[in-house]
Amino acid sequence: MRPKRVAIVHDWLNQHGGAERVLEVLHELYPEAPVYTSIFDPAAMPAEYRNWKIVTSFMQRLPGVARHHQWYLPLYPLAFDSFDLSDYDLVISNSSGFCHGVLTRADACHLNYCLTPPRFLWNFDAYVEREAVGAVVRAALRPLITILRVWDAAAAQRVDFFVGISRAVVARIRKIYRRDAWLLHPPVDTSRFRPADRVEDYFLVVSRLVPYKRVDLAVGAANRLRVPLLVVGDGRDRPRLERMAGPTVKFLGRLPGEQVADLMARCRALVFPGEEDFGIVPVEAMASGRPVIAYAAGGALDTVIENQTGILFREQSVEALAEAMARFRADEFDPEALRAFARQFDTAEFKRRFLELVDRATSAG
Q1: Which of these, 333, 261, 323, lies nearest to 290 by C-alpha position?
Q2: How far apart are the first and last CA of the chain?
Q3: Upper half-sphere CA count for residue 108 (Cβ side, 13 Å)
Q4: Distance between CA 278 and CA 280 in Å, rounded?
Q5: Phi-psi region for residue 298, left (φ > 0), alpha (ψ -120 to 50) or beta?
Q6: pLDDT for 289-348, tens place per residue?
Q7: Can you give 161-199 as a three-state secondary structure string?
Q8: Is the distance from CB of 101 to CB of 148 less than 8 angstroms?
Q9: What is the pLDDT of residues 267-287, one digit of tens each?
Q10: What domains can be seen in the chain, in order of their start residue?
Q11: Dist. CA 42–CA 60, nearest whole Å
Q12: Could you give the CA distance from residue 125 to residue 1 in angstroms, rounded to a whole number?
């Protein structure tokens, strides 16, 4: 049974990344559904968003919120509490922050697509370490983080059904919220990627250049092995990484999608050194017929199958990654088998399975 009125809820719309790509697919499924969010910066988002019905909270009027939304951390629970969703039969929240805390009618269904429970709350020490937060600010934040954890755990009980994006996230939901969750991997547009007629002699990283992505490991391993490494992407960690890089490492910055797809199709392998909740880029590499060398943690364990779709290294160090890159043999992987594996994550498959889960959830009551 399809619910009559649907609303979508999203944490914030002031940056475009993996969470927003999921939102776009959800909006394709429910194009008439309004999107409720704390803040919306049209200049930072794709032009198509301006045609959506987007409902913002009181936070939209706060000074500097679009660029510095982290400053207003204590206000997000109030922002999502403030929305009146009483008209909706189905509420879909797409969250890694606070939006799962919305209030819904007692007879409505609230389905949460959980990208992860908030890392800045539940993995606070690691989060502030990699963001280089000073000791004084860290100490000042701790009481607030404790209060927000209490709110977050209580807000999770407002959700009727959780869906996690990877086995790692499903386990996190169970540990933190004491709730079961269905598993549904995020959508990947595999049709954008094709194999090349030749493979060239370089490894590839495609990533935002921020500390937790651990691109420093790939740079260090390439330096040690003296092998070519191309790095696509930009971010605040780029100056540090460029200072580390030897002569075989080249930084290409942000590139159009077509150029990224071409580089992916011709690389020896994609290198994925960080721990991610899922990781769309490895699936894109497989859709291009190329294997992946990944750190054995998080969402990579759902996609990188040892000696089938790539190889894993089990310690997050330059030494372990260099050893994996040295033993990697491109001719041991079948491009068509990699592409067939990637197709299970395609957007069309996501849509089909998501609608099945909605039917299960709305029929369960």
Answers
A1: 333
A2: 11
A3: 22
A4: 7
A5: left
A6: 999 999 999 999 999 999 999 999 999 999 999 999 999 999 999 999 999 999 999 999
A7: EEEECCHHHHHHHHHHHCCCEEECCCCECHHHCCCCCCC
A8: no
A9: 999 999 999 999 999 999 999
A10: 6-187+346-364 (3.40.50), 190-344 (3.40.50.2000)
A11: 12
A12: 44
Tokens of 247: 């002569």
| CB contact at 8 A, 168 and 301 | yes
Q: How many CB atoms neighbour CB 7 within 10 A?
A: 24
Residue type at 126? Answer: A
pLDDT at 265: 98
**H or E element that contains 6:** strand 6-10
What pTM value is reported for the model? 0.90
Q: What stretches of 104-180 adopt beta strand conformation (E)?
A: 109-114, 161-164
* β-bridge partners, 294: 272, 312
Interval 51-98: pLDDT, tens: 999 999 999 999 998 888 888 889 999 999 999 999 999 999 999 999
Question: Which candidate, 317, 353, 154, 83, places its Cα nearest to that of 220?
Answer: 317
